[in-house]
């Protein structure tokens, strides 16, 4: 896993966006209205809260930015030099320092303005101080426009850097441009690096991964390096130089002997000598590439001597390879991994920690005391049990018994034979099962099987009786006539008890449900609600229905009287309304007609309903117009001292 993950850094907003975020958040998260009845202490707290909240928001945002960006003095030297090459260390530190200074200035402004608001004597002065505080804070943020824009570009570039671990097992490839580094990386890893027949196709570091001996290896493809002084090298070349300088790895220096890369062998050897100090304490392999176009054996002797001289000078390995035919690709990878593993083991052995480990290890090499050959000893009992030709009886093993009795998962050996107890006959005794400190065997009835059989027989007999009753037949039984008569009497008595329980259950409840009482009944189709039908049903159940029928007749008479009274009242009202309409003038009649249409438009067809609706509207307004808080707009008419204090402008002064 990578040590540094720059992809999780949060975006850096621009200065205008930063100001909008802070002010909008302050407006949303703090109260916005001062009511006329507030005391001056509450007004001061109102404005101090806004200043403090704005300062906290700015401080949190700037702290997040400063924390996300890495400190060059605390990270690995490889990343520190890489940031210096790509972004300029001084410019990077200056931008972060300016944001840190801006955070301190905002905190100081908030402290000063809050101290002044505490002694303000009017709402106008509190508001002026609040506006001054927020304005000064926003001015500080506006001055950070260049720093915020620069840091956002740095963040975008950092997020595109490869996830590289400087401390893991690494294979690094270097050399002049277009010598076959990217092609080799595509062969041994899954990294799809762009390969083109021209120089500087690779402009940054590319990271791939491969496996060797069940270990994960990190493979780094670097941009091409040209043979000139360090001061003349550009940013692309410096990335390869930084990787060579700071990573503990196995280095593959590629040399194109076909010279199709555009550089001669002399130039490639000259570059090797110029960067030779960077190969110190690293496992170096000189890879002669593109032997499919120019074989190593047929190379010009002078050029071959130049390459061999480099190998002798640095004491490194020389290998030939071709990416097109894949000749020597796996051998180069294996040799690079083996050399790095060996160097890592040697580094650990030569370290200080190995002494403490070696002191705890003791290795003994026994010396023979005589010339007698002492081979493996097999007891005679084992020989007799396993060998039939030695006169013993063959004893079947557990494996043989397993295959004879169904195979694995079906048969398992009885391990009780191997128990070592005081008495051998105890080995196959049942092991008691203890639950909650009690033996389960104490609660097992020895005659449970017999009782279970009796219950099953009784259950079969009951099932036969039920089937016989369904078919209308009498079940076969062993009872005589007298016993059958007793059984019949018992069943009749049981039916009577069932009916009486139903009668007693409905004694204190209405016979007809409440939901069915008020329903309209058709006298031509009475159905089950006819008096004669109800009386006959109740008599069968043993219930006296005379009182119930009389109560129903009484309710019917009263209902008929109510209908007659209401019909008469409606008739009189309609006559009175007609007389009143005749006495009204044309103008009054039009007004009355217009009022009725307005009432009907709102779904209120009577004056009484209209009055009730207006009353409910007044009651509803009283609920939200009564108590005042920071979120409503209720206004008072009286004026207090602070409203007439300080500078006034044209317009209303009851809302600030």
From TrEMBL:
| Entries under SUPFAM superfamilies matching the protein | P-loop containing nucleoside triphosphate hydrolases
Concerning InterPro entries, the annotation shows: G_OBG, GTP-bd, NOG1, NOG1_N, NOG1_Rossman_fold_dom, NOG_C, P-loop_NTPase
Task: Decide whether keyword Protein biosynthesis is in the record.
Answer: no
Give the record's GO biological process terms: ribosome biogenesis
Q: Which UniProt keywords apply?
A: GTP-binding, Hydrolase, Nucleotide-binding, Nucleus, Ribosome biogenesis
Its subcellular locations are:
Nucleus, Nucleolus
Q: Name one GO molecular function term.
A: hydrolase activity
Q: Where is the composition biased (Basic and acidic residues)?
A: 523-583, 596-613
Q: Give me the Gene Ontology terms describing cellular component.
A: nucleolus
Q: OBG-type G domain: from which residue to which, for each copy?
A: 169-341
State if Cell inner membrane is listed as a keyword: no
Region of interest (Disordered), residue spans: 505-633
Q: Which domain of life is it from?
A: Eukaryota
Function recorded in the entry: Involved in the biogenesis of the 60S ribosomal subunit.
| Family according to the record | Belongs to the TRAFAC class OBG-HflX-like GTPase superfamily. OBG GTPase family. NOG subfamily.
The entry's protein name is: Nucleolar GTP-binding protein 1
> Which organism does this record belong to?
Fragilariopsis cylindrus CCMP1102
């Amino acid at each position: 896993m990578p040590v540094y993950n720059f992809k999780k850094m949060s975006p850096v907003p621009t200065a205008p966006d930063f100001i909008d975020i802070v002010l909008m958040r302050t407006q949303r998260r703090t109260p916005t209205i001062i009511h006329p009845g507030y005391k001056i202490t509450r007004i001061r707290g109102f404005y101090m809260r806004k200043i403090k909240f704005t300062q906290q928001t700015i401080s949190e945002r700037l702290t997040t930015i400063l924390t996300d960006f890495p400190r060059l003095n605390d990270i690995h030297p490889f990343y520190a030099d890489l940031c210096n090459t790509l972004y300029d260390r001084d410019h990077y530190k200056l931008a972060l320092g300016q944001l840190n200074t801006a955070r301190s200035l905002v905190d100081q402004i908030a402290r000063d303005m809050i101290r002044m608001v505490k002694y303000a004597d009017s709402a106008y002065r509190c508001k002026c101080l609040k506006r001054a505080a927020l304005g000064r804070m926003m001015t500080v943020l506006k001055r950070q426009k260049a720093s915020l824009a620069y840091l956002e570009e740095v963040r975008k570039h950092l997020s595109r850097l490869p996830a590289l671990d400087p401390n893991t097992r690494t294979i690094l490839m270097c050399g002049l441009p277009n010598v076959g580094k990217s092609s080799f990386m595509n062969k041994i890893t899954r990294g799809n690096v762009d390969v083109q027949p021209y120089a500087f196709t690779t402009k940054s570091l590319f990271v791939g991964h491969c496996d060797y001996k069940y270990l994960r290896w990190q493979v780094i493809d670097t941009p091409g390096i040209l043979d000139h002084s360090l001061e003349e090298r550009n940013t692309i070349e410096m990335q390869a130089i930084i990787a060579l300088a700071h990573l503990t790895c196995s280095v593959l220096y590629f040399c194109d002997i076909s010279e199709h890369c555009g550089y001669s062998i002399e130039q490639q050897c000259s570059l090797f000598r110029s960067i030779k100090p960077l190969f110190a304490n690293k496992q170096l392999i000189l890879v002669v590439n593109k032997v499919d176009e120019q074989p190593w054996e047929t190379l010009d002797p002078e050029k071959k001597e130049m390459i061999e001289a480099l190998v002798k000078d640095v004491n490194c390995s020389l290998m030939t390879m071709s990416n097109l035919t894949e000749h020597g690709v796996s051998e180069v990878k294996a040799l690079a991994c083996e050399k790095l593993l060996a160097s890592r083991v040697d580094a650990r052995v030569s370290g200080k920690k190995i002494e403490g480990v070696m002191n705890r290890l003791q290795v003994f090499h026994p010396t023979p005391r005589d010339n007698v050959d002492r081979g493996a000893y097999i007891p005679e009992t084992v020989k007799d049990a396993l060998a039939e030709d030695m006169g013993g009886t063959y004893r079947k093993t557990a494996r043989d018994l397993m295959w004879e009795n169904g195979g694995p998962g079906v048969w398992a050996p009885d391990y009780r034979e191997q128990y070592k107890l005081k008495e051998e006959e105890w080995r196959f005794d049942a092991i008691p099962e203890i639950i909650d400190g009690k033996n389960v065997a104490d609660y097992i009835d020895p005659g449970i099987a017999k009782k279970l059989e009796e219950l099953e027989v009784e259950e079969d007999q009951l099932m036969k009786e039920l089937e016989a009753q369904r078919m209308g037949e009498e079940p076969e039984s062993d009872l005589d006539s007298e016993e059958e008569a007793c059984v019949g009497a018992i069943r009749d008595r049981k039916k009577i008890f069932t009916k009486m329980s139903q009668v007693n259950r409905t004694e204190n409840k209405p016979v007809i449900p409440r939901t069915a009482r008020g329903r309209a009944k058709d006298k031509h189709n009475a159905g089950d609600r006819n008096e004669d039908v109800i009386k006959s049903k109740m008599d069968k159940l043993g219930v006296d229905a005379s009182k119930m029928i009389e109560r129903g007749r009484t309710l019917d008479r009263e209902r008929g009287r109510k209908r007659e009274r209401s019909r008469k009242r409606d008739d009189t009202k309609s006559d009175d309304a007609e007389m009143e309409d005749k006495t009204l003038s044309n103008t009054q009649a039009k007004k009355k007609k217009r009022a009725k249409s307005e009432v009907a438009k709102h779904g209120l067809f009577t004056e009484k309903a209209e009055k009730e609706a207006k009353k409910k509207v007044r009651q509803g307004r009283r609920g939200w117009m009564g108590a005042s808080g920071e979120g409503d707009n209720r206004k008072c008419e009286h004026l207090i001292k602070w409203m007439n204090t300080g500078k006034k402008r044209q317009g209303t002064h009851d809302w600030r």
